[in-house]
Inverse folding.
């Protein structure tokens, strides 16, 4: 499979689908349960549909997305595995979700009422997951609404308007394995499940653990883990454990121009870099519109022909410049440039970018723009 934004794309994100399947096995083997793998935000920038197909073939328990529209796009692409969607605006199209057999995670009494009304209009029961706020204080049913919600859900259940797929919560401090908040939230989830059991309602699945918890707290796995970042081969707690995750995305471009810069010459906007001696530079035709953060100006490195070269001057919307040194580094126009990848041989990684930018690698990989072509290798991919 090959997905591209056009033949003139100046950058390519190669996604190794074999790594996706491998990472799923690492996560589920470590946790001892199946996974509801998160493919929201276009599969964290990797391509939701190709990733979803790979995960389904690898035996995933289900898929998770933020929005109903993301779930319906997967259905249109032929994905028939269970899909849970958990973030809804007040005008969310719950009828379409029911028609598409999407598991609707509800976070309030108001959402439940809207789902029940949609089910009545369609004349069929809605599949629902109950999202409980056990301390994140973001989405999820608030503690002061919980008793009323349970009563309302029990009525809807008795009326046949809903069927329960799962009960879920979201960890606030999963990337801090020893933080006591994790245990408090797990206890809150267990209490919520017990309250539902008290009125005769038992979920198929209870899930809490995100990637960091899946890697470091198997005691919080419940019936399924819910990994996102780890599926794509990145570890949000690199200091805890040595999980054999393989980064699935390698971002590449090519050298579009090589030129000499005389000693004292400034490079790019504002001349924040000036050559100390006569040097050679290369223009790389991707920029912050493509997901190369401007804050990395003067901080990133790229790999060309097995050698590392530093970025210099300000990163622009469509391009940036690297310093090849006085001898030109043996680099020519058209040579392949690796911006980040698996880190093999000490090469640059998305984590390196994130650390230099003062952010998280989630933001780096999801920020790779649509002008960058996606290419897939592995099962059903277009490469070897």
């Amino acid at each position: 499979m090959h997905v591209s934004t056009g033949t003139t794309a100046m950058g390519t994100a190669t996604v190794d689908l074999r790594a996706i399947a491998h990472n799923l096995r690492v996560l589920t083997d470590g946790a001892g349960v199946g996974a509801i793998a998160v493919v929201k935000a276009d599969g964290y920038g990797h391509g939701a549909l190709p990733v979803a197909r790979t995960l389904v073939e690898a035996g995933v328990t289900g898929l998770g997305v933020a929005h109903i529209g993301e779930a319906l796009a997967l259905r249109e692409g032929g994905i028939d595995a269970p899909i849970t969607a958990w973030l809804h605006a007040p005008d969310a199209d719950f009828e379409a979700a029911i028609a598409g057999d999407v598991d609707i995670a509800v976070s309030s009494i108001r959402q439940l009422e809207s789902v029940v009304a949609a089910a009545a209009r369609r004349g069929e029961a809605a599949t629902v997951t109950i999202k409980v706020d056990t301390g994140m204080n973001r989405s999820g049913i608030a503690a002061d609404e919980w008793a009323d919600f349970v009563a309302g859900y029990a009525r809807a259940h008795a009326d046949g308007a809903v069927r329960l797929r799962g009960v879920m919560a979201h960890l606030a401090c999963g990337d801090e394995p020893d933080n006591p908040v994790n245990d408090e939230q797990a206890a809150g989830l267990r209490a919520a499940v017990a309250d539902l059991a008290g009125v005769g309602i038992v979920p198929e699945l209870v899930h809490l653990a995100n990637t960091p918890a899946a890697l470091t707290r198997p005691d919080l796995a419940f019936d399924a883990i819910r990994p996102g970042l780890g599926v794509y081969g990145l570890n949000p707690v690199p200091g805890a454990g040595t999980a054999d995750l393989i980064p699935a995305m390698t971002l590449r471009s090519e050298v579009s121009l090589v030129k000499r810069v005389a000693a004292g010459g400034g490079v790019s906007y504002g001349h924040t870099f000036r050559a100390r001696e006569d040097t050679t530079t290369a223009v790389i035709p991707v920029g912050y519109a493509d997901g190369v953060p401007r804050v990395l100006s003067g901080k990133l490195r790229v790999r060309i022909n097995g050698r590392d070269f530093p970025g210099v001057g300000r990163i622009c919307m469509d391009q940036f410049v690297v310093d090849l040194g006085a001898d030109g580094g043996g680099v020519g126009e058209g040579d392949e440039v690796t911006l980040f990848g698996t880190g093999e041989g000490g090469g640059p990684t998305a984590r390196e970018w994130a650390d230099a930018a003062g952010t998280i690698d989630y933001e780096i990989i999801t920020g790779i723009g649509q002008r960058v072509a996606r290419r897939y290798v592995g099962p059903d991919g277009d490469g070897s």
Summary: The chain has a mean pLDDT of 95.
